[in-house]
Amino acid sequence: MTKQEAISHFGSQRALSVALGLHEQTLQRWPEQVPKRWVMAIKNAMLARAIQLEKQAAGLRIAAGA
User: Fold this and answer.
1) What are the sequence ranges of the domains in the chain?
2) Can you tell me the distance from the alpha carbon of 48 to that of 56, in angstroms, rounded to the nearest whole number?
3) What span, in angstroms and rounded, lies between the C-alpha atoms of 3 and 34?
4) What is the pTM of this model?
5) What is the C-alpha to C-alpha distance for residues 60 and 25, in angstroms, rounded to an integer?
6) Contact 3, 32 (CB under 8 A)
7) Residues 13, 27 contacting (CB under 8 angstroms)
8) Of 9, 29, 34, 66, whose CB count within 10 A is highest?
9) pLDDT tens per residue, range 2-48
10) Exposed (0-12), middle (13-18) or buried (19+): which is 42, by Cβ within 10 Å?
């Protein structure tokens, strides 16, 4: 996974750093390929975000009467 791919999944470098509990400066120092020790953490954060978005979507469907 590239650093840019990881950032794009979260929308911004700041959002990715918050999701991982890192300072933005730490992400800036990463090489183009995400360090292997962080790949699983990113995938777990992506899964958590997907679950959160699914819950929000369900709430919106209920509120819309759909």
Assistant:
1) 3-64
2) 13
3) 5
4) 0.83
5) 36
6) yes
7) yes
8) 34
9) 999 999 999 999 999 999 999 999 999 999 999 999 999 999 999 99
10) buried
